[in-house]
Amino acid sequence: MILERTGGNPFFIEEVVRSVRPGQELTVPTTVQDLLEARLDALDASPRRVAQGAAVIGRTFAMRVLARVTPNEDLDPALGTLEREHFVGRVVMAERTYSFAHALVQEVAYRTQLIAQRRRTHVVVGDAVTELFGERIEEFVDTLAFHYRRGEDDEKAVTWLLRAGHRAQRLYANPEALDYFRGAIERSRSNLSARAESHEALGDVQRVIGRYDEALAAYAEAMAIHADGDLVAHARVERKTGLVQQLRGKANEALATFGDVLTRLPQEAMGERVRVLLNIADLQFRSGKADVAIDHLREALADAERIDDSDAVAEALKQLGTIYGYKGELGQALDYQERSLQAYVRLGDVLGEANVHNNIGRTERRRSRLGEALSAYEHALAIRQRIGDQLGRVHSHGNIAEIHFLRDELDDAEYHYRAGMDIARSIGYPFGASGCLVGLGATNVARGDPHTGIAQLREAISDFERAGHRTYLVEMLRDLTEGFVAIGSSEALTTAERGLALARELALPELIAIALQALGNARLAARDPIGAIDALDEARALLAQGACVLTVGWRRRAPATVPRAARSGEGDVRGTGCRARSATLGVAARLTLARYLWTTMLPPPKMVVGSASSPASGWLSYTTAPVTASVILMRKVSGPTPLLAWPSTAETMNL
Predict the structure, then answer these.
(1) Is residue 60 helix, strand or coil?
(2) Under CATH, to which class is 470-600 assigned?
(3) pLDDT greater than 80 at residue 466
(4) Which whole number is the average pLDDT over 64-86?
(5) So what's the pLDDT on residue 636?
(6) Which of 155, 225, 370, 443 has a CA between 20 and 30 Å from the CA of residue 72?
(7) In CATH, which superfamily holds the domain spanning 183-394?
């Protein structure tokens, strides 16, 4: 019968055996809970009350706390009884501590009390912990939130739920943070200030994890409470609604929101004004106004340093690093990024650290240090996965995919682009989804499926145009140009010219160089070698002046005509620095162009072997040695007037 009723449960069988008394008829309750309740009821009053008080404390309970909870009981004999009956046992710790033998024992002892009694006891437990362990109170924040939440004191419940929620938020324990803040909202009906803080904090967490509708709803609740009260608090929450608008790709709405907040903020609210300036600068940069963004950032940085706002200082330095990277000033970009990283480390802001690692990876990639870039990106992704930063994961996957693309590891590139796109779509982040779509489009072009790639690129470009993100369009148009070149479409030339016009309007040298490279490829495909040479020459000059590398942007790859070693960073160019990298790309592209002219448009060249010569009238002359060659293209003229000469003495290339 015992096996049948207990279902073979070892703990149930053990409790049945313990319940047997000499001379009593054996009865087996339906559940183990019923059996435990019967055994507790059979105890004397004092051990039973001690067990019930201990059950409110928790599965494990300290003797000192139990003494506060049951001040009228003689604990030593009561605990002795509970030990003999195998309800509790001693735990080896510095402080005298006990633990219930099984979670079900605690559960039964807890629920055999009236709800009102339990609520009073939870408050007593919380008070005991704060008094007894005040010097270590940070260790007990979650414990206090647990007990006061279940107690009858609303003020203490709100205080400790908010404190635990903010602690979880700092640790990016997002589910726990959401639970604590919701609990604070439930218990703060009579405390409007705490209620507004709870709604705002709830919105902050929901924004980070990509629940934008819920975030806006929480912010609206907070603003409604602040509407007739704290002007600065209302402005702060309104600014956060602008952040959500920006994340959703509504740049104009976000900019209007930030502008409205800035005009209504009192001058003395310097901390909040700094944050609005940072948000405006980010939007201005994304819309292609880099110099305007820099002005805002410098103003924000100066104000933040003046009021000793470390968070704002770190953010301003990070954004300046990003913009100077796009301007091609990589040394200054890296300096700002390193300073920003140090600031975030001092603050203990791991999300900030992840963002800066990501930006350092971008700078290293522009310096053609692909291994270092990949390491930085993977470091950022690991942090973002640990803290649940969904938006950041989108960017990390896109950047890691880009490195694989540059290395011709197209399967790995596609995996990360798709991973980033899936996350972006799941959280309603159109900017991220469109960015990954660009990468997929370029990957398909590189794989020999240009029609699919072109369709994906066109869709992504339309998305970015609607969102007003003009800075990124130049690189997308470059990718689309490559797709049109691959299918022999005349749209390659018009697309490249459109990209160059936009790049010149944005006045970012690195983007101008990218657009010129695309235009050179398009002109070459259109059998316009002279125009191609002009474009490539200008691109090479810009890259050399800025000491930067061509591989920049959402998806950056050297033209398919460039030899694999030059595209992937392999061979002699690995680790030789930015200038050597850009020069090698330029030489390789020109050498390809020379071969194209030689094989498709020019009659057989004259050849002078063994030493340099002064070219006379003709199409092509060059000198050759066993290892290197210098090539000079000549326009057919009556005299020795060269069209273009390359490479220079320092730029000879292994053949």
Answers:
(1) strand
(2) mainly alpha
(3) yes
(4) 94
(5) 29
(6) 155
(7) Tetratricopeptide repeat domain (1.25.40.10)
Query: Across residues 469-497, what is the average pLDDT?
Result: 93
Q: Is the dihedral of CA 325, 327, 331, 337 positive or negative?
A: negative
Rg (CA), the chain: 35
Token code pair at residue 349? 């802001």
Contact 357, 376 (CB under 8 A): yes
Fold classification of 2-113 is Arc Repressor Mutant, subunit A (1.10.10)
Domain ranges for the chain, please list them: 2-113, 183-394, 470-600, 604-654
Rounded to whole angstroms, the Cα distance separating 5 from 32 reads: 10
Single-letter code of the amino acid located at 307: I
Q: How many whole angstroms separate alpha carbon 19 and alpha carbon 382? A: 53
User: Do 2-113 and 183-394 fold alike per CATH?
Assistant: no
User: What local confidence, expressed as pLDDT, does residue 210 receive?
Assistant: 83
89 in helix, strand or coil? strand
C-alpha to C-alpha distance for 433 and 431, rounded to whole angstroms? 6
Quote the pTM value.
0.61
Confidence bin at 649 (pLDDT 50/70/90):
very low
> From CA 238, how far away is CA 203, in angstroms rounded?
12
Q: What is the DSSP string of 404-461?
A: HHHTT-HHHHHHHHHHHHHHHHHTT-HHHHHHHHHHHHHHHHHTT-HHHHHHHHHHHH
pLDDT for residue 404: 95
**pLDDT tens column, 562-603:** 333 223 332 222 222 233 333 334 434 444 554 455 445 444
**DSSP assignment of 597-648, as one string?**
IIIIISPPPP---SS-----SSSEEEEE-SSEEEEEEE---SS--EEEEES-
- Alpha-carbon torsion angle 565, 567, 573, 574, nearest 10: -100
- Whether the CB-CB separation of 479 and 438 falls below 8 Å is answered with yes
Measured CA distances, 377 to 173, 286, 384, 461 (Å): 22, 21, 11, 25
CA distance 82 to 77: 9
- Share above pLDDT 90 across residues of the chain, in percent, rounded to a whole number: 58
Q: What one-letter code names the amino acid at 207? A: R
In this structure, what token pair is assigned to residue 12?
A: 């149930």
Name the residue with tokens 């704290």.
Answer: 230
Backbone dihedral angles phi then psi of residue 646, each to the nearest 5 degrees: -160, 165
Using CA atoms in the order 201, 207, 210, 216, what is the torsion angle rounded to 10 degrees? 100
